TrEMBL record:
It comes from Ambrosia artemisiifolia (Common ragweed). This is Fe2OG dioxygenase domain-containing protein. Belongs to the iron/ascorbate-dependent oxidoreductase family. One of its GO terms (molecular function) is oxidoreductase activity, acting on paired donors, with incorporation or reduction of molecular oxygen. Coiled coil: none annotated. Keywords: Iron, Metal-binding, Oxidoreductase. The keyword Magnesium does not apply. Residues 191-292 form the Fe2OG dioxygenase domain. InterPro entries: DIOX_N, IPNS-like_FE2OG_OXY, IPNS-like_sf, Oxoglu/Fe-dep_dioxygenase_dom, Plant_2OG-oxidoreductases. The lineage of its organism: Eukaryota, Viridiplantae, Streptophyta, Embryophyta, Tracheophyta.
Length: 343
């Protein structure tokens, strides 16, 4: 496995190898800056003693999930120093020698620790300008034991973000007209899957020909993202790609995933997004993907089927099977979600 980092640091690199050339880039219109303000959710209001304020932020969550599938979270209680340390320690991981990182190379999509490049280098026809580290941090915690201090930082960060996600899903449960603990109990979040992912996108000499990560939706319920301040995230909003820059300190970018779309019977849609690259600066992002218990069968909530008389839009599927289907194949838009649509 050849890392993109090593390739990008080659002193004579002027043109990217043909395996990284994404022909779709030539016909893709440029992304726009969003016309509407990105929804911002004040997390502190979800736990406020004021019932009116709680109800208002639940309404805002509903709009954010319906109209965007994407929002920013502020006042979440996770220390900014911890968030900065996560970025720094992730950079230190990628800065280790190839020999040191080699012991973590991916073998199976459910390996607890996976270091690799592209998305699925065994099946990708076009490689993506990206190196990654994926670590399953819950229900059982795993993490590389180097660089020094990385494991301790990831452990604390995974715990703190899990609490944020739990509270957000309680608010979303209410916004769907359910008891606030309904999502939590039904999908067994206590043993839910949480994956820590660090993504490295080095400078690319031909950024118009390459893609950091192709259009896709996330497989879980909610994904939290932070980065090192270098832009590159784009989401599809109202059929157009828009640039997203997290220029608000100490905030999370949050997007909805496929399992939330299935569970809500399509009321909330997972958002399609991608990562683009540049020729000047390294972009580093850290995402935490949060899903149901691996053994849980996910299907539309009964309220949206039996009580409201609607047909289920999706067939039941165990989350583990969905994850293996998505991670074990080439990633193309929302094709995995299309496979579980009811005929």
């Amino acid at each position: 496995m050849n890392s993109v980092k090593a390739l990008a640091e080659s002193p004579d690199l002027r043109h990217i190898p043909s395996i990284y050339v994404n022909s779709a880039n030539s016909t893709e219109p440029p992304a726009l800056d969003p016309e509407d303000a990105i929804p911002t959710i004040d997390f502190s209001l979800l736990t406020s003693d004021d019932a009116y304020l709680r109800s208002q932020v639940v309404k805002e969550l509903d709009i954010a999930c319906k109209d965007w599938g994407f929002f920013r979270v502020i006042n979440h209680g996770v220390p900014e120093s911890l968030m900065n340390m996560v970025i720094e320690k992730s950079k230190e991981f990628f800065d280790m020698s190839d020999e040191e990182k080699k012991e973590f190379e991916e073998k199976d999509v459910l390996d607890p620790i996976r270091y690799g490049t592209s998305f699925n280098s065994k099946k990708d026809e076009i490689f993506y300008w990206r190196d990654f580290l994926k670590v399953i941090v819950h229900p059982e915690f795993t993490c590389p034991n180097k660089p020094l201090g990385f494991r301790e930082v990831v452990l604390e960060y995974s715990k703190r973000t899990r609490e944020v996600v739990k509270e957000l899903l309680r608010g979303i449960s209410r916004s769907l007209g359910l008891d606030q603990s309904y999502v939590e109990k039904t999908l067994k979040l206590e043993s839910g899957l949480q994956i820590f992912v660090a993504n490295l996108y080095p400078p690319c000499p031909q950024p118009d020909l390459a893609i950091g990560f192709p259009p896709h939706s996330d497989h879980g319920l909610l994904t939290l993202l932070i980065n090192n301040g270098v832009g590159g995230l784009q989401i599809k909003h109202k059929g157009k790609w828009v640039n997203i820059n997290n220029n608000l300190p100490n905030s999370f970018l949050v997007n909805t995933g496929d399992q939330l779309q299935v569970f809500s019977n399509g009321r909330y849609s997972s958002v399609e997004h991608r990562a683009v690259v540049n020729n000047a600066a390294t972009r580093l992002s850290v995402v935490v993907v949060n899903g149901p218990s691996l053994d849980e069968v996910v299907e539309p909530a009964k309220k949206f089927v039996t009580e409201e008389g609607c047909s289920p839009a999706y067939i039941p599927m165990k989350y583990k099977e969905y994850l293996e289907m998505q991670q074990g194949n080439q990633i193309v838009g929302k094709t995995c979600l299309d496979r579980v649509r009811a005929v």
